[in-house]
């Protein structure tokens, strides 16, 4: 007898990510109550389930929704404001002054909404964010129907958002109190970086993270300068300092990890930390090439992030996936490292696990949330197709994303974004902030 479901998605190919290195042909995903109920051959799905909605994706590959493991979403409003500068000059001469002039609740809400629209259209269903006004970002991600983890940003210096570390924590925790029961919105603690946060505050963050059972999201070992400065100010490398302060653990998500020595690899592996690899941002700011293949080899969970739109300048995980593969190969002179399936896994299941959300998202498995992305491989440049995993990494881009679901609800349909705001309303927001920022 046929069982009821909410949604049936028949796809030419499915890359479930778990089990690893598998491509299913002519299978269907059955969705009920926002969760994946079954993955089975299409004929069986048609006879065993009936649903009010079904999609026939005859030339498409279905993958788990991509997870952006590191973003500053509202920085879409500062895209292209300053390019071609190294990190510290870029921060001190361009970004921090611009933020001190313009950042507000409305800036973060509007900028994040634009980021969410861009990310959803590029197949991203979850974003791990770090910025000011996490309550404004929560409002935007809620409106866009995306899943998000919002960092409670902590700095020592004042910004229009908060005056000192206490104030950042107090406001961030208040936002968490307001939003944390939302089914798609979570919170982390986000001390900006070892060089912007004091020992005392880092210790407080570690104890709060344990108390609240949250991830700690922190920029780490991004530039050589950061490591030299840590040596002169603290006498040790940043990771050694964090270990001494009690920050390292399986809930520690370090962003970048470009410059690592043996002691750093050992600490990350020993404590089960995770890394958000952001290859495009690292290239653009000339920070270096993170040793992603070696980290993976050491058993460290490495996911992928875009970083903010002011240092990338695209919130495009297809680009990060491709850069990850190419950089790993050219930096090791070994073409076999990080093959296609491994890179797709980094942008999905590894990122989910780094967020402590590996039971909910990151793969197409029964019981998980139906966060899904379909990529159309029916164009001249994607045909013929001998291996859809290869095409996903080396050929396809976000322009080939045709359908996106979050928790079984459609967010992109045949390439069209399904938001309450239409494209011209979103473009009006960009025009508004272009005028405000230019004045
Ligand atoms: Zn960043």
From TrEMBL:
GO molecular function: hydrolase activity
Pfam families named in the record: Amidohydro_1 (PF01979)
Hydrolase as UniProt keyword: yes
Stretches assigned to the Amidohydrolase-related domain: 61-410
SUPFAM superfamilies for the chain: Composite domain of metallo-dependent hydrolases, Metallo-dependent hydrolases
Hydrolase keyword on record: yes
Gene3D superfamilies, A to Z: Metal-dependent hydrolases, Urease, subunit C, domain 1
Record key words, sorted: Hydrolase
NCBIfam families attached to this UniProt entry: PRK09045.1 (NF006549)
Similarity section: Belongs to the metallo-dependent hydrolases superfamily. ATZ/TRZ family.
The protein's name in its UniProt record: TRZ/ATZ family hydrolase
Source organism of the structure: Aromatoleum anaerobium
């Amino acid at each position: 007898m046929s069982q009821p479901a909410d949604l049936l998605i028949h796809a030419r190919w499915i890359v479930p990510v778990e089990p690893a290195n598998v491509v299913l042909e002519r299978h269907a995903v059955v969705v009920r109550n926002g969760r994946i109920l079954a993955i089975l051959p299409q004929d069986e799905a048609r006879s065993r389930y009936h649903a009010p909605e079904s999609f026939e994706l005859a030339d498409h590959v279905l993958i788990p929704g991509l997870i952006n493991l590191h973003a500053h979403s509202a920085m879409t409003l500062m895209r292209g404001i300053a390019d071609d500068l190294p990190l510290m000059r870029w921060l001190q001469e361009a970004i921090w002054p611009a933020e001190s002039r313009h950042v507000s609740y409305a800036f973060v809400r509007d900028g994040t909404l634009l980021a969410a629209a861009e990310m959803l259209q590029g197949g991203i269903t979850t974003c791990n964010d770090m910025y000011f006004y996490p309550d404004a970002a929560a409002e935007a991600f809620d409106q866009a129907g995306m899943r998000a983890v919002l960092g409670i940003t902590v700095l020592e210096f004042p910004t229009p958002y908060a005056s000192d570390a206490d104030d950042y924590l107090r406001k961030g925790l208040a936002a968490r109190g307001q939003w944390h029961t939302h089914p798609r919105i979570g919170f982390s603690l986000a001390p900006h970086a070892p060089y912007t946060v004091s020992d005392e505050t880092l210790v407080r963050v570690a104890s709060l993270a344990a108390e609240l059972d949250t991830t700690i999201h922190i920029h780490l070992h991004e530039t050589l300068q950061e490591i030299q400065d840590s040596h002169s100010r603290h006498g040790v490398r940043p990771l050694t300092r964090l270990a001494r302060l009690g920050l390292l653990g399986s809930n520690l998500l370090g962003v970048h990890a470009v410059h690592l020595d043996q002691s750093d690899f050992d600490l990350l592996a020993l404590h089960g930390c995770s890394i958000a690899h952001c290859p495009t941002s690292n290239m653009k700011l000339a920070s270096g090439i993170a040793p992603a293949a070696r980290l993976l080899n050491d058993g460290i969970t490495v996911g992928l992030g875009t970083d903010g739109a002011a240092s990338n300048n695209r919130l495009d995980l297809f680009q990060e996936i491709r850069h990850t593969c190419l950089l790993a190969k050219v930096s090791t002179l070994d073409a076999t490292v990080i093959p296609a399936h491994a890179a797709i896994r980094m942008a999905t299941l590894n990122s989910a696990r780094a967020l402590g959300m590996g039971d909910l998202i990151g793969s197409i498995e029964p019981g998980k949330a139906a966060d899904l992305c379909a990529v159309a491989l029916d164009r001249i440049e994607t045909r013929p197709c001998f291996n859809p995993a290869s095409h996903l990494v080396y050929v396809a881009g976000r322009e080939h994303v045709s359908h996106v679901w979050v928790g079984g609800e459609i967010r992109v349909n045949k390439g069209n974004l399904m938001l309450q705001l239409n494209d011209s309303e979103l473009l009006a927001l960009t025009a508004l902030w272009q005028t405000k920022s230019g004045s």
